[in-house]
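#help-structures

NK: newbie question. if I give both the sequence and a SMILES, will the prediction place the ligand too? trying with zinc ion
OV: yes, paste both and it writes out the complex. here, I ran yours:
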Amino acid sequence: MNTRKVLAYAAYKADENLKPFDFVQRDCQDKDVEIEIYYCGVCHSDIHQARNEWGGSTFPMVPGHEIIGKVIAVGGAVSKFKVGDWAGVGCMVDSCRACSHCKAHEEQYCKEGVTWSYNSMDKIAGRPTYGGYATHIICTEAFALSISKKFENNLAATAPLLCAGITTFSPLKKLGVGKGKKIGIIGLGGLGHMAVKIAVAMGAEVTVLSTSENKKADALKLGAHHFALTTKAENMQTLAGSFDAILNTVSAPIDYNAYLNLLNIGGTLAVVGIPAEAVPVNPAILVMQRKQILGSLIGGIAETQEMLDFCAEKGIVSDIEIIKVQAINEAYERVLKSDVKYRFVIDVKQSDMSK
Ligand SMILES: [Zn+2]
Ligand SMILES: [Zn+2]
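OV: that's the protein plus ligand as structure tokens.
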């Protein structure tokens, strides 16, 4: 029996700071891997859920779904991992694995409901799943990701690929981003900066579309070929009809119609952020120019592995600021002010998780 006491940081209530928490780990099943967590990225959705802004949060909650660590135990039937391997866990730790969406490798749309890495119900333990702000996690090997040795010197910066990376890679791939394609990226935050790196590595001509001129130097440094200030009406006129696709990475409500105008005939506006309110769309723009809007939620497990292998090959990681776990509450406040370039990552291994 597993008697390991896992040390973690948890939200005990929606309106309280995160504090130390511990729980006894469940047993490793035949197909499970037990991972000692080294790093965990801090995603904006951690804050939404810790503060119950989406409703239905279960407390105490251990957030964190950008997890990198070392495999320290494997069940008897595990074939993909051995003790000592690096492994990653993203937003999901299980799904029904039998419905048509799961069979199509799109577990994130599982008809029975995904088991999320935290704030979900652990089917085996019969208690909530606890995420990556913790010393250990157990996950079935089918949902654990292999982390290439090429990332070994950059494991902290690899962690955000597990959510920010796949959230942007999946739509970019569906949009057929590659050589000869002109792509616009709206926003340059945690998601946007990954989108720029990935779209550039895919071979596209990339323009960052932003409302703040002070993002220009960073956009170009990250590899974008152009930068356009969208608050300038004259830029919006010059760029009309010029993109094959635009990826919107911001969650604030923006004028979709203005960006649909920037697309060429047949172009697609892809959306990964969900504003708190509905956004009006003018169907005439879609009809008269055969344009479309595509929504996208993270990506399936196989696609996440494909993204990790692509990033390992291209040398892509996230730009991060490393923190100890005690700085998490301050980090949340800074994420809300977009005061981070571009992702906080908790150094779990170097943090004293007990205080
Ligand atoms: Zn996330
Ligand atoms: Zn399913």
